[in-house]
Amino acid sequence: MHNLFHIWVYLQPQPLLWLTITLCVWELARAVDTKAGHHALSNPTVMSIFITASLLLLTRTTYQTYFSGAEYIQFLLGPATVALAVPMYANWPVIKRNFLAIIVSLTAGSMVAAGSAMLILHAMGSPRMVIISLGPKSVTTPIAMGIAQNLGGNPSLTAVFVMITAMFGILVYPAVFRLARITDWRARGLAAGVAMHGLGTARMLTIDETAGAFAGLAIGLNGVITSIFLPVMITLFGI
Amino acid sequence: MIRALAILLLCQLAGTVLQQAFGLPMPGPVLGFVLLVAVFLYRGGPGVELRETSQGLLKHMGLLFVPAGVGVVGELGVLKQNALALIIAIPLSTVLGLVVTGVIMQWFMRRAGNQAGSADA
Fold first, then answer.
1. Where along chain A do its domains lie?
2. Are A173 and A200 spatial neighbours (Cβ–Cβ below 8 Å)?
3. Is any Cβ of chain A less than 8 angstroms from the Cβ of B83?
4. Which residues pair with A184 in a beta bridge?
5. In whole angstroms, what is the distance from residue A128 CA to residue A234 CA?
6. Complex ipTM, two decimals?
7. Helix (H) or strand (E) holding A58
8. Which candidate, A108, A54, A56, places its Cα nearest to that of B102?
9. B44 vs A contacts (CB less than 8 Å)
10. Does residue B71 sit at the A interface (CB-CB below 8 Å)?
11. pTM
12. What's A184's DSSP letter?
């Protein structure tokens, strides 16, 4: 027992331990998701975050220690974002034909999402820093953190809001699409990309390639559009 | 696979250099993505290797968000203080965003009389 404790003390601060745990938890979550027939409640990303965060709290491991291993995974977000060019190119003719529709729907949806979220927080008396950190919550994590930093928010809080938003979106999108009678895969993909960025794209890619391409397209465009309208919106709302 | 990774990282690097050089609001990887689309349009689509590596990476994109998501453990205090407002604001705004984007986009698609992308369910 004494030896086991020593091994733990040795391994705990090393990248190897938490990198391995993150990958194993992911594989476990994927197995559960497959068993559950890709149910909305069995999303592997949400499950992995839940299990890993619980492990950190239980073992009193700091996020910094965890991140020294997990950063190798986070690094792959960069090349994965670039890799979105592959489905985008495959769907280029469809995207080109619908460019105006895409820009209008995306801007409207993005502004409604950011505006309503910030107004509710403002009305309920949350501090300015929290309101600004929530503003870019529908944008993909690296862009959202940059926007929050520029406007005086807290980037790591923004990263958490981005994740919570995406996780909530993943849970409710099948019901929302059904109730709002959104059946078109292009509309579904675009909406998923606007509301829950990369996580929505990841989900759409596993269901329908066209939806995945529209979701991927929404990520980049939403980042650019939000970085333009958010400062104006904050001034207009008097936040 | 390594060659494909090199191509993806090269695009990301070029994007990051552009972003730094011109102080653009878009991050490096997003510019890299734009660059790669431009290359495909100019020179034709990806080869087998790049296509397969990209699809492999995208298939596991869900994993890549885990580290940022686990960051929730560091922000529990602020989340608790603003819990009620956030519990109302995040779900409501997310549903509104989904509905507004989806409904407008679908309206455009139907108006164009093009139902090719429609799902059965």
1. 2-75, 84-237
2. yes
3. no
4. B118
5. 10
6. 0.83
7. helix A44-58
8. A108
9. none
10. yes
11. 0.79
12. B
